[in-house]
Amino acid sequence: MRRTRNVSKGFAAALTLATLGIALGTGPAGPARAAAGGSPVVGTTGGAVRGTTGPNGLRSFQGIPYAAAPTGDLRWASPQPAAAWAGVRDATAPGSACAQPAGLPVGVPSEAEDCLYLNVTTPAKQSGKRPVIVWIHGGSLMFGSGDLYGPERLAAEGAVVVSVNYRLGVMGFLAHPALGTSGGLGLEDQQAALRWVRANAGAFGGDPGNVTVMGESGGGYSVCGHLASPKSAGLFHRAVVQSAPCATGGSRTQEEAEAEAEATVRNLRELKACGDHQDAEACLRHADAATLMKAYGTWNEPRPVAGTDLMPLAPAEALRTGKFNRVPVLIGVNHDEERGRILGQELGGGPMRPEAYEPAIRAEFREQADEVLARYPLSRFGSAGEALATALTDRTWSVPTLDTARLLTRWTPTRMYEFSERETPAWSGDPKLSFELRASHMTELCYLFDLKLPLFEKLTEKQLRLGERMADTWVGFAASGRTDWPGFRSGGYVQSLTSGPWKRTEFAEDHDYAFWKNLR
Asked: In terms of Cα–Cα distance, which of 248, 341, 263, 273 is closest to 300?
């Protein structure tokens, strides 16, 4: 399905002011022109922006505001329109990462609340209307920033790629009753970004009638949220869900969210961060971002609240009943999702000892531990850590992803893949590990993006070829809603993606699907 790459360097410079079709800084979005020195200028609904053209011919526009800064009275408010600007706004550097604690290499420690910015990358040559991919970064809805994921590979295959910053953690998902929020402001931010895309994609050569929302991990659960949210209806036309089984995640109850919010307020009071403010809302609004994040905690996994106008049904229930935004879906999972987490534990405490395997299984699976130990005996594996990672991968990721595909395919065209490459990029620094990383959580992102994360070594030539093929496949799906392999409805077809021939995998058998579904 490879298409001709339209990455001509000279097209932007050939455009004239007359082609722009708007007065700079005013009027509707308009196509690109070249400013003095060859920097591309595009008119948006908020005003004109000046970006850069790289040596690969791709145009980049960074740090464009898609909503007003959620500061002051707008803290914990739904996103509001960004103010327009006069003249040409510099768009050569990304906006601030949204407030997030230190703790994970997928994040950018930040206390910024003025952070609702997006980035656009597009081929310089405009040849008709290109599919638009809106990338929602992962990081457990606690960490991350859109600019950490360089989208050059996807744009080189012919897509206009938009990456988004959205409120995270305590700023994006706190649901204290005194605040009166939806409990999913981060999801609302993403919807505001999608509305911006609908209004402005054409100015960047994209088709506002062909938008794919794509996310991985926490970002993938956000895509589950957009499938379930009536307020996202019409804002996207395809969906890509990576390592985020909608059947078991993507939301929480009001009770769960309020308990977390009350704990946050208690922690603020213990930190003596409320000053003279006694009521919860005043205390929350008085505290600065750093203190709020400390009170909220670092390892939460926030989710939007189900049972609200934003998300009337949890994603799993929405898919089960067909009450979701029915668009073609590409969903997938990595073959060895949990290996990264277990290896991360080994980096801190050394390889898992064989005698530690059974206690770890019993702590994780409790009353089901005997059956799990019988199905995943240590003798089957090269190390205790590998054995534990395999059981956790199958239970937590593989089985619910297959369940999600089965729910989706009842209502909408669905393709499923499994990223199964074994020779994936090593962790930076080449630490000595007791088993191989293989297709762990996040490793497929190395192939789709030029990651600006201190996690993995650079791709080899062989890995780059797989990355180009995957990027071509993702952009092809964004363009057409189809892939080179059959839909999931064709006998539960799952395509294995490796550096060798792509072929069907017997996914259910490989991940002991029947065992887990029958486990009581």
From this structure: 263
- The two tokens of residue 495 are 């395509």
In tens, the pLDDT along 496-517 reads 999 999 999 999 999 999 999 9
- Looking only at the bridges linking them, the beta strands covering 58-65 and 52-53 are antiparallel
Contact of 490 with 409, CB cutoff 8 Å: no
0.85 surpassed by pTM:
yes
How many other CB atoms are there within 10 angstroms of residue 234's CB atom? 13
Size (the chain), residues: 520
CA distances from 370 to 357, 360, 365, 383, 516 (A): 12, 12, 9, 19, 13
Give the type of residue at 363.
A
Query: Distance between terminal CA atoms of the chain?
Result: 44
Pairwise CA distance, residues 275 & 286, whole Å: 8
How far apart CA 415 and CA 328 sit, in angstroms, is: 8
Owner of token pair 């089957």: 380
Give the tokens for residue 428: 């930076």
Q: Which two tokens stand for residue 79?
A: 């996103």
Residue 380 DSSP code:
G
Helical packing angle, 384-393 and 357-365, nearest 10° = 20
SS3 433: coil
Q: Is the pLDDT of residue 165 over 70?
A: yes
- Enter the tokens of residue 190: 């993403």
Six token digits for residue 237: 């036309």
Residue type at 457 in one-letter notation:
E
What is each CA distance from 432 to 196, 240, 350, 426, 428, in whole angstroms? 46, 34, 9, 10, 11
User: Measuring CA to CA, which residue among 496, 511, 481 is closest to residue 400?
Assistant: 511
- Sign, CA torsion 219/223/229/235: positive
List, in sequence order, every residue forming a beta bridge with 330; answer none if it has no partner: 240, 415
Distance from C-alpha of 7 to C-alpha of 21, rounded to nearest angstrom = 23
CA gap 22, 43 in Å, rounded: 7
Please give the order of strands across the beta sheet that includes 47-50: 30-34, 40-44, 47-50, 88-90
What's the pLDDT tens digit per position in 170-229? 999 999 999 999 999 999 999 999 999 999 999 999 999 999 999 999 999 999 999 999
For residue 30, give the 3-state DSSP assignment: strand
40-44 and 47-50 as β-strands: parallel, antiparallel, unpaired? Answer: antiparallel
Contact 175, 306 (CB under 8 A): no
